[in-house]
Amino acid sequence: MGMKKEGLKLFENGKRIDGRAYDELRPIKMEVGVLKRADGSCYLEWGGNKVLAAVYGPRECLPRHTQDPLKARINYRYNMAPFSTDERVRPGPSRRSIEISKLSKEALEHVIFTEYFPKTSIDIFVEILQADAGTRCAGLTAASLALADAGIPMKSLITACAAGKIDGKVVLDLGKLEDNFGEADLPIAYMPRTKELVYLQMDGDLTKDEFKEALRLALKGCDEIYRIQRDALKKAYEGEVNGR
Ligand code: CDP
Question: 179 CB under 6 A from ligand 1?
Answer without folding.
Answer: yes
